[in-house]
Write a structure and sequence with these properties.
By secondary structure, the chain is mostly helical. It has two domains: 6-181 and 297-326, HUPs (Rossmann fold), CATH 3.40.50; 205-292, Orthogonal Bundle (Tyrosyl-Transfer RNA Synthetase). 54% of the residues lie in helices and 7% in strands. The longest helix has 30 residues, at 297-326. It is globular, with a radius of gyration of 21 Å. Bound molecules: tryptophanyl-5'AMP.
């Protein structure tokens, strides 16, 4: 089929992984494995763009790898690796800092503006430069498709711009990648404020269902989730953003599509809907965590080492070509 197409994506091992990561990113990856050659990274050098506790970071790297595996990423089919294990990523990012990436582009990045907020002058340079490292991640592997949640689309656009600029100076070396986001679930929202994205950096954990939350705790969070005015359970992003978000979660973690759910819940109240959704989420977490708990730390070490070897061979080859083109080899 489309075997020759290459997929690349990654997640930062910072904070708790939640159902937004699963629905927006990982569940897409699992489907894509069937038809494409996939490379999935644990992007630890992105994580250190904000302060990390070293012990916790080490633990999260293992945790994210286990989450990939428990979700159904197959290490026999796909390459899974830790970003910092392959120096070609940071080296190419540096080269892009000098060729291709422009201050004006980075200044436009909405995620930087959000994260830096008022502290724009005092945050680390890494936070500003983060999309350039992401471009290097993607472009090293001749990636065709980058499956991500909505919030990363702008960064993939930047990777495309950098690739085009570099190519126009040195020839067609980088493939121009494309982002792919889910039609439903590209942006899972906070349970307490449907105007905000569900986020691992959120201080109030009731906003967010972590993939490693106990099923009981997750049920309570769903029951506490805000709803909208009115009584009908309909998918209406403008007038019923909270219910639309809950319907999306229900459809993505359960077996019924949104349209079906709307029909099935016609004439039923929010309370009943949330109770059923709580059961669906709890069941999903239970099954997921059973798989997660079967994976040992030793398994992870072996898989990451195997992935490093495979990914490094590809990345190093591309980097050599780039080094030659710019004249350092
Ligand atoms: P990160 O670690 O913030 O998020 C990982 C993936 O999860 C998606 N996501 C969501 N999707 C739907 N609803 C949500 N509430 C939600 N929260 C997170 C993100 O869109 C993302 O797809 N810079 C990237 C990591 C990265 C990367 C890459 C991705 C580094 N290099 C190369 C693709 C290709 C990031 O910080 O994602």
């Amino acid at each position: 089929m489309n075997k020759q197409k290459i997929i690349f994506s990654g997640i930062q091992p910072s904070g708790q992984m939640h159902i937004g990561h699963y629905i927006g990113a990982i569940s897409q990856w699992v489907e894509m494995q069937k038809d494409y050659d996939c490379v999935f990274s644990i992007v630890d050098y992105h994580a250190i763009t904000v302060k990390q506790n070293p012990e916790e970071l080490r633990r999260r790297i293992i945790e994210v790898t286990k989450i990939y595996l428990a979700a159904g990423i197959d290490s026999q089919k796909s390459i899974i690796f830790q970003q910092s294990a392959i120096p070609a990523h940071t080296e190419l990012a540096w080269i892009f800092n000098c060729y291709g990436a422009r201050m004006a582009d980075l200044n436009r990045m909405t995620q930087f503006k959000d994260k830096a907020g008022e502290n724009r002058e005092s945050v680390g340079v890494g936070l500003f430069d983060y999309p350039v490292l992401m471009a290097a991640d993607i472009l090293l592997y001749d990636t065709d498709i980058v499956p991500v949640g909505e919030d990363q689309k702008q960064h993939v656009e930047l990777a495309r711009d950098i690739a085009r600029r570099f190519n126009s100076e040195f020839g067609e070396i980088f493939k121009i990648p494309q982002s792919v986001v889910r039609q439903e679930g590209a942006r899972i929202m906070s349970l307490l404020d449907p105007a905000k994205k569900m986020s691992k950096s959120d201080v109030n954990q009731n906003n967010c269902i972590a993939l490693l939350d106990s099923p009981e705790a997750a049920k309570k969070k769903i029951m506490r989730a805000v709803t909208d005015s009115g009584i009908e359970i309909t998918y209406d992003l403008v007038n019923k953003p909270a219910i639309a978000n809950l319907l999306t979660i229900y459809a993505q973690l359960g077996t019924r599509q949104v349209k079906r759910l709307e029909k099935d819940y016609a004439g039923h109240g929010y309370g009943e809907f949330k109770k059923d959704l709580a059961e669906v989420v709890a069941k999903f977490l239970e099954d997921f965590q059973k798989k997660y708990n079967r994976i040992s730390d030793d398994d992870v070490v072996k898989i990451l080492e195997d992935g490093r070897k495979k990914a490094e061979a590809i990345a190093q080859k591309k980097l050599e070509e780039v080094r030659k083109l710019i004249g350092v080899r």
